[in-house]
């Protein structure tokens, strides 16, 4: 009787355990509800409040995939890159970056973060073109956390470990070059965020034109003056650069390099004292490498007052140029993009 009782007790316990297990199990429909609810919560969390307002633990969880231990942020770019476009920006101008993503940078609706939509050209539509915004660290912590949120969502921001300021811009730009040297693009273009770049036209021009193997092209300034007054924004001391004029160089709003020059420039910069006029300094290094700038002032059109005349441009004028700037506001950038959508980018 004792054995029978023990057996019955065991059987009863097993039955109760199975019943409890069934009660605890979540049916597929319940799982779906949980997943949908969680997804909705994350969506609201990401889009309906500033990133800086998230609890610290949430910010860390969301940032861990793209913020490095030293505070830098870098996009995840793989494969062979034909053209890498570094867009000089500052942390607080998120609205300007949004405009560029909606227009010529074309990154807003692509599956690959940072990859340009508008790469259709006459030669090879499978070329990888990436647009990456280059920024430094803000002194405003809220701006930094907002930028981390933006980087997490868009995947197209490169934050360098240097404070954002005009004086530090050259450090930021060269930090961008060092990162680009690891990507190994065939071509590298550096632009400011107040210009318009017709990417399809640029790619077509690169293929059609017989270009120097060591390419350094843009709007070339001849006999650029060196500012010697210490209170000038572009001040350079004689100790930094002792000549009376800069060598010919491509101005900073936009210039194009062949990718194999990046590492050479990094190496030669170790022997040449850095000064804070970023584009002129690059021109000095190019001369050290015995590379002359290719003057394409008719294709890369530079005029600080260009925004006033562009609304009156003809279709022919738009078709003739590749890059326009500088000081273009968001309204003008949208106007130019709308014009190209009507007449075609090529």
TrEMBL record:
Protein name: Hexosyltransferase
Subcellular location: Golgi apparatus membrane
UniProt-recorded Gene Ontology molecular function terms: hexosyltransferase activity
Membrane topology: Single-pass type II membrane protein
Zinc keyword on record: no
One protein family per Pfam: Galactosyl_T
Family membership noted in the UniProt record: Belongs to the glycosyltransferase 31 family.
EC number: 2.4.1.-
Gene3D superfamilies in alphabetical order: 3.90.550.50
GO cellular component, one term: Golgi membrane
PANTHER family registered for this protein in UniProt: BETA-1,3-N-ACETYLGLUCOSAMINYLTRANSFERASE (PTHR11214), HEXOSYLTRANSFERASE (PTHR11214:SF376)
Membrane-traversing stretches: 32-52
Top-rank EC class of the record's enzyme: transferase
Organism: Actinia tenebrosa
Swiss-Prot/TrEMBL keywords: Glycosyltransferase, Golgi apparatus, Membrane, Signal-anchor, Transferase, Transmembrane, Transmembrane helix
């Amino acid at each position: 009787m004792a054995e029978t009782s023990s057996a019955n007790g065991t059987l009863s316990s097993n039955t109760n355990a199975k019943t409890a297990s069934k009660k605890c199990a979540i049916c597929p429909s319940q799982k779906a509800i949980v997943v949908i609810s969680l997804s909705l919560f994350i969506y609201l969390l990401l889009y309906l409040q500033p990133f800086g307002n998230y609890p610290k633990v949430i910010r860390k969880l969301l940032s861990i995939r793209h913020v490095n231990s030293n505070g830098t942020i870098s996009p995840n770019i793989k494969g062979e890159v034909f053209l890498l476009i570094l867009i000089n920006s500052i942390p607080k101008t998120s609205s300007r970056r949004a405009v560029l993503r909606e227009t010529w940078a074309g990154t807003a609706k692509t599956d690959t973060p940072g990859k340009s939509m508008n790469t259709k050209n006459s030669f090879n539509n499978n070329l990888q073109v990436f647009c990456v915004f280059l920024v430094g660290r803000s002194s405003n912590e809220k701006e930094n956390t907002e930028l981390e949120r933006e980087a997490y969502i868009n995947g197209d921001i490169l934050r360098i470990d240097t404070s954002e300021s005009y004086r530090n811009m050259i450090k930021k730009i060269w930090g961008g070059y060092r990162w680009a040297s690891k990507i190994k693009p065939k071509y590298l273009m550096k632009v400011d965020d107040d210009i318009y770049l017709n990417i399809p036209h640029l790619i077509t021009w690169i293929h059609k034109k017989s270009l120097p193997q060591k390419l350094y092209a843009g709007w070339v300034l001849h006999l650029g003056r060196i500012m010697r007054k210490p209170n000038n924004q572009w001040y350079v001391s004689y100790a930094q650069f002792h000549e009376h004029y800069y060598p010919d160089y491509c101005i900073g709003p936009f210039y194009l390099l062949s990718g194999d020059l990046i590492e050479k420039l990094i190496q030669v910069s170790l022997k040449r004292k850095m000064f804070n006029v970023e584009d002129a300094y690059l021109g000095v290094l190019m001369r050290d490498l015995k590379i002359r700038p290719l003057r394409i002032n008719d294709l890369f059109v530079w005029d600080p007052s260009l925004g006033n005349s562009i609304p009156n441009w003809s279709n022919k004028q738009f078709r003739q140029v590749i890059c326009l700037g500088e000081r273009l506001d968001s309204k003008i950038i949208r106007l130019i993009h709308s014009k190209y959508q009507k007449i075609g980018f090529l």
